[in-house]
Write a structure and sequence with these properties.
Elements lengths: L1 H16 L5 H39 E4 L6 E2 L3 E4 L5 E10 L3 E4 L3 E5 L2 E10 L2 E9 L3 E9 L8 E9 L2 E10 L9 E2 L6 H6 L1 H31 L6
Antiparallel strand pairs: 1-5, 2-4, 3-4, 4-8, 5-7, 6-7, 7-10, 8-9, 9-12, 10-11
């Protein structure tokens, strides 16, 4: 009797505390499924976050792009050829494709003043001369500079701080090396202007080109850089 009672009590207790068959397996399966879902969700969230960060980085890489086909006029100058003809040049300057400004900048400190140097990539520069002979007839000559000629241009920004605020001001523009124009042309057929002056006109254009293209490039980049500075978060 003692054995039967103990056995019955043991069995009763055991049955009352026993987990129903299959419940633990389903719990493990549910836990495993939830864990996998959480891992997938975390991976997806991380991927999206990384992608968004990359997109932000890509957007920050290119700070500003100027508008193309924006003309910048230069003061006219006069040339007297060997025949005594007075030839007036009215030059203007533009970039056919604009320029890109990037954030891979360098800094320098001069006389306790901070400067930021931002490189530029100028695309397809054009200097156009309207040539007037003796105030009567005129022709237009175009001289181009390829992209690689001014890919070392740099704008120099002066940073000034006052209290919790700081501002960036365009200090200088370095257009880098300027090489010979790749092409130059004139309208056909030749008019009085070219016929009278001949090759002297072309030679004069070439001689004046280097000095004037540098000044016109500076003017173009300075104006565009001033606009771009408003979009820069320097501080």
């Amino acid at each position: 009797m003692v054995v039967l009672i103990k056995t019955g009590c043991f069995r009763g207790v055991t049955r009352s505390r026993r987990t129903p068959v299959g419940t633990s397996g389903r719990s493990r399966m549910v836990f495993r499924t939830v864990s996998i879902f959480v891992l997938i969700w975390a991976f997806a969230e991380g991927f999206i976050a990384n992608r968004q960060a990359q997109l932000v980085l890509d957007k920050m890489t290119e700070i500003s792009t100027s508008h193309a086909n924006e003309w910048f006029a230069l003061p006219q100058f006069t040339y007297h050829d060997s025949y005594g003809y007075e030839v007036t040049y009215t030059p203007r300057f533009r970039s056919l494709a604009g320029f890109d400004m990037y954030d891979n900048a360098t800094t320098s400190i001069v006389s306790q003043k901070l400067y930021i140097h931002i490189p530029l990539n100028v695309r397809d520069l054009v200097t156009e001369y309207q040539v007037t002979c003796e105030g009567r007839e005129y022709e237009t000559f175009v001289q181009n500079v390829t992209t690689s000629n001014l890919d070392q241009a740099t704008i120099k920004i002066s940073v000034t701080s006052s209290g919790d605020f700081c501002t960036g001001t365009l200090a200088d523009v370095d257009v880098g090396p300027v090489h010979s124009p790749t092409t130059y042309g004139r309208p056909a057929p030749p008019t009085f202007c070219y016929s009278a002056v001949g090759d002297h006109l072309i030679n004069a254009l070439t001689r004046h080109f280097f000095g004037h293209v540098r000044e016109s490039a500076k003017k173009f980049l300075s104006k565009s850089a001033d606009l771009a500075l408003k979009r820069l978060n320097l501080c």
